[in-house]
Amino acid sequence: MERLPIDPVEMERRQNKDFIAALKMIGEGGPIYDQPESSSQEPLGYDEEQLPRYYQ
Fold first, then answer.
1. What residues have CB less than 8 Å from 14, skipping those under 6 apart?
2. Residue 52 dihedral angles phi and psi, to the nearest 5°
3. Segment 1-56, tens digit of pLDDT
4. CA 21: distance to chain centroid?
5. 0.85 surpassed by pTM
6. By C-alpha distance, which of 41, 22, 21 is closest to 32?
7. I need a labelling partner for 11 at 20 to 30 A (CA). Which of 1, 39, 47, 50 fits?
8. Residue 17 near residue 25 (C-beta atoms within 8 A)
9. 10-49 in b/e burial notation, b at 16+ Cβ within 10 A?
């Protein structure tokens, strides 16, 4: 097995906190496909009785 040389630019990117944070944001807001179907979550939203009278 032949080993490839380490790319110094790639190693610099892996230590850059901004680059790592950008990679973690990829796909944010998208659907989560690995969530089990049977998980019961409460629907999002507010109860109309809890909202202020003049809520728009």
1. 20
2. -60, 160
3. 788 898 999 899 989 998 888 888 776 776 666 756 655 566 667 777 777 777 65
4. 10
5. no
6. 41
7. 1
8. no
9. eeeeeeeeeeeeeeeeeeeeeeeeeeeeeeeeeeeeeeee
Cβ atoms of residues 20 and 14 within 8 Å: yes
| Interhelix angle 8-15/17-25, nearest 10 degrees | 80
> Which residues have CB under 8 Å from 20's CB, separation 6+?
14
Q: Which residue type is seen at 46?
A: Y
Nearest-CA neighbor of 23 among 35, 34, 13, 11? 13
Tokens of 25: 């944001």
Tokens of 11: 């190693």
